[in-house]
Automatic annotation (TrEMBL):
Protein name, as recorded: 4-hydroxybenzoate 3-monooxygenase
Alphabetized UniProt keyword annotations: FAD, Flavoprotein, Monooxygenase, Oxidoreductase
Gene3D superfamilies recorded: D-Amino Acid Oxidase, subunit A, domain 2, FAD/NAD(P)-binding domain
SUPFAM superfamilies, per the entry: FAD-linked reductases, C-terminal domain, FAD/NAD(P)-binding domain
Keyword hit for ATP-binding: no
Record-annotated FAD-binding domain positions: 16-357
GO MF, one example: FAD binding
PANTHER family tied to this protein: P-HYDROXYBENZOATE HYDROXYLASE, TRK SYSTEM POTASSIUM UPTAKE PROTEIN
Pfam families: FAD_binding_3 (PF01494)
Record's signal peptide: none
Length: 407
């Protein structure tokens, strides 16, 4: 699983009840939950604070996730600044179809860019609640996770010395390529993966949204998506070959494809602007089972990934964090291990439900561009059913919005 002892020639060891590896939404939420309960913890992050506060990522939050943040005193800025979305629009066969999901379910989405949430969470954790955090750390390693005395070591960016931190638990929140995934035991960690064989060109445009809601374009040339992020910035996606070079997509080509794939009768053209981000995402999902290995508890992308097809990634990470943070507090302050004992099962039930919806929605998004007339026909039948049947519309809306209760 890991080396059995930290590197030699290190500085005197420190101790924290919990070490959190990774300062994304999951790691910072766990840290804030612990600090609110007066439990000391240390958050380790390989990037700088400036980097994590500016890194653009997800932006759609389910109502249950926002309620969970609000209940823990972590949603004040979000509620004051986020956009409230109550409907989305599908465009296919040259027509537009609105789905008023809030009217169907009484539930809505919030749009709040992930970097703003991370900024809020790190300020609350470090500046308000006085939590310990180290940025820019290098060569993080985990040790003795199968004992009751685990530890984490890292190289200090300022001194170049190895630091050792003893703890009771490690929360692994550092993604698929981080130190906590590298520490998983051979033969005990089972990783299920699915590759869609599809790429998405992820774009940020310095242009106001062209609609008051999210747009999904299903077109024979490929899927396209329009996601408002602010009054001045819009996220777009374009289906492309996996592994495609972003440099193959000039601004003229990007806007020509977006205009065509998101066009519909009776709607004005998209408002164009300068592209400020352009990268290709290969669409894939994975799930690590279980999510607990000795004293290591995985959360967020370290444990599972859902491609941005269904906008579930940040929401799943936050729900993991609610369960893990609450479970750690109960164990460390009350000796109640119930939450930690049930953590992996509770998370994975939700994760697999979202994985299934992501697969279903991928077929809806990409069937018309598959080149297979049969898939294209069944895809259009699925889309028409959503708008012909209130029952089908409600079932879609519940999955799209997150049918689970808050964490």
């Amino acid at each position: 699983m890991t080396s059995t002892s930290p590197h030699h020639n290190s500085s005197p060891a420190q101790r924290f009840p919990v070490v959190v590896v990774g300062a994304g939404p999951a790691g910072l939420t766990i840290g804030n939950i612990l600090r609110a309960a007066s439990v000391d913890c240390l958050v380790l992050e390989i990037e700088t604070r400036e980097f994590i506060e500016q890194r653009p990522r997800a932006g759609v939050l389910e109502e249950g996730a926002v309620r969970g943040l609000q209940r823990r005193g972590l949603a004040d800025n979000l509620l004051a600044r986020a956009q409230r979305h109550t409907e989305c629009e599908f465009r296919f066969d040259g027509e537009r179809y609105r789905l008023e999901y809030a009217e169907l379910t009484g539930v809505h989405h919030w749009v709040y860019p992930q970097q703003l949430l991370v900024t809020d969470l790190v300020r609350e954790y470090a500046d308000v609640r006085g939590g310990a955090i180290r940025f820019g750390v290098q060569d993080v390693e985990l040790h003795d996770l199968d004992t009751d005395r685990p530890s984490v070591s890292y190289t200090c960016p300022d001194t170049g010395q190895r630091q050792v931190v003893h703890c009771d638990f490690v929360a692994g929140c550092d993604g698929a390529r981080g130190a906590t995934r590298a520490a998983l035991p051979a033969g005990r960690a089972h990783i299920a993966r699915s590759d869609y064989g599809i790429g998405w060109l992820a774009l940020l445009a310095q242009a106001p949204p062209s609609s008051d809601c999210v747009l999904f374009g299903m077109h024979p040339r490929g899927f396209a998506g329009h996601m408002p992020r602010s009054a001045e910035v819009t996220r777009y996606y374009l289906e492309c070959p996996p592994g495609d070079d972003p440099e193959n997509w000039s601004e003229d080509r990007v806007w020509t494809e977006l205009q065509q794939r998101l066009g519909a009768n009776g709607v004005p053209p998209l408002t164009e602007g300068r592209l400020i981000e352009k990268r290709v995402l290969d669409m894939h999902n994975y799930v690590v089972e279980p999510m607990v290995f000795g004293r290591l508890f995985l959360a967020g992308d370290a444990a599972h990934l859902t491609a941005p097809i269904a906008a579930k990634g940040m929401n799943l990470a936050l729900h993991d964090a609610f369960l893990l943070g609450d479970g750690l507090v109960a164990h460390l302050t009350k000796g109640d291990g119930t939450g930690l004992d049930g953590y992996s099962t509770a998370c994975l039930n939700r994760v697999w439900d979202c994985q299934e919806f992501s697969h279903w929605l991928s077929e809806v998004y990409h069937g018309t561009s598959s080149g297979d007339p049969y898939r294209a026909g069944t895809t259009l039948a699925r889309l028409r059913r959503i708008f012909d049947s209130p029952t089908a519309a409600r079932a879609f809306a519940e999955q799209y919005l997150g049918r689970h209760t808050e964490g």
